[in-house]
Amino acid sequence: AQEQKIGNYALGPEGLKKALAETGSHILVMDLYAKTMIKQPNVNLSNIDLGSEGGELIKNIHLNQELSRINANYWLDTAKPQIQKTARNIVNYDEQFQNYYDTLVDTVQKKDKAGLKEGINDLITTINTNSKEVT
């Protein structure tokens, strides 16, 4: 298989494996951050004199902490599962393509237009199904 390099990304089996491994590493970091944010209590600044605008500052800090918790829960409950499903779909499609490849080459060599069309349509159907799952 041919590798094509675009910017920092290599397109092809090895580039795909590397990208998926990096995605897994990033997911672990995001999980750690999200779980830390959810467990972290609101900052207590009541014993510190923050001047006349202290009340507003504390209110804004607490609002930002709450927004961080909302985003952390969104990551854990929605974004992460979608990313993981997309990664699985990519791997599954790669396997499907690899399984079809020799058959497709054979249909081309035999000039079997119907068989080639059927194989390509199967791959297109998988692509369309997977693309509908990406939001």
From TrEMBL:
SUPFAM superfamilies: Bacterial hemolysins (SSF58100). Gene3D superfamilies: 1.20.1170.10. It holds the Pfam family Bacillus_HBL. GO terms for cellular component: membrane. InterPro entries: Enterotoxin_cmpnt, HBL. This is Hemolysin BL binding component L1. The lineage of its organism: Bacteria, Bacillati, Bacillota, Bacilli, Bacillales.
